[in-house]
Amino acid sequence: MNQQEPSELNEETPSRLRKGIYVLPNLFTLAALFGGFYAIVMAINNQFEAAAIGVFTSMVLDSLDGRVARMTNTQSAFGAQMDSLADMVSFGAAPALITYVWVLNDLGRWGWFAAFVYCACAALRLARFNVNTTVVDKRFFQGLPSPAAAAFVMGFVWLVTVLEIVKSDMAWVCFAFCLYAGLTMVSNVPFYSFKDFQMRKSVPFAVIVSIALVIAVINIHPPIVLFALFFAYAFSGYVVYAWRRAKGLPTSVISTSTDEPDEKGLH
User: Fold this and answer.
1) How many domains does the chain have?
2) Is 261 part of a structural domain of the chain?
3) What is the pTM of this model?
4) For the chain, which ranges sit under pLDDT 50?
5) Does any domain span residue 229?
6) Long-range contacts made by residues 170-177, C-beta under 8 angstroms, separation at least 24?
């Protein structure tokens, strides 16, 4: 989610990044990278629930490294590049390899086709984001963010594994999910970024209560709740697209805001 720079949740523009290597934010980035690597290893060992949890853990850590860098004033060009490479592993290669080992290999060439499409689209998504950071409306992401795409796919793997559904029956569903997530990542569909919510500003007491309730609901059954949340988000962009089109508003997120993007957000 968050990156140091140029990740999808940061304030600095590439031209303002300092050269150097800072320990603290890069520790979070390395931890997020380890989460993706751990997920791949767990999948090879047929521990798919642990693999899914590894990807979700990477999401949490990825959302923190950029914020830590800004809070400690340790943004750097090195951190930006490191973060992008870590995201490619955790949210691009890891979900593709895990889904292939999990069930897509049952589909033969169609299976690795779907896995490769997802992986390639994640790479294209990251590359496009890195060159469009200053021209995209900060309220939206251009296409499905890569951490959300990974959560959508891995949430499905986690849910099927926990519910002990026969995974071979889910092969074509997984095929469809991988293609949908991959192609939506490289689409121009606007996905709401939630950047209007500022952590440093005071909020009504009801907001804190709502956050507590959300955490409690997730705790009831994490696989079901998390998959439901990211399933809804994965399709929300098309709802936003249809609504903006119906209202006669621009459907492209490129240069639709007069404000300089202050954060670069999720991939």
Assistant:
1) 1
2) no
3) 0.83
4) 1-5, 9-15, 256-267
5) yes
6) 170/103, 171/103, 171/104, 171/106, 171/107, 171/111, 172/107, 174/99, 174/102, 174/103, 174/104, 174/114, 175/104, 175/107, 175/110, 175/111, 175/114, 177/152, 177/153
